[in-house]
Amino acid sequence: MPTPKKKKRDYDADVRAWLAKLGLPERKYRDxxxxxxxDEHVLGRLARQELTKEEAHEVLGLIHSxxxxxRAFAEALAAEFxxxxxxxx
Length: 89
Known about the structure:
mainly alpha; 4 helices
């Protein structure tokens, strides 16, 4: 018997709901057409705190500007958290 597919969660709706509950304005992202390609390696290094202050500042600017970078960074943080949890750190 096939396993039922998991319902995909609408994270954007979740964020909008929390912002509304907190009385905060919704974040406005820049047009994705102008976004540089997401660099998952750099985001992983940021999650592991391996970037210089200047590099981190530049990458954080991309994370705050483009939704694709925000989502990829959230995934990098989750992966780093799982890695540390598995290693008992």
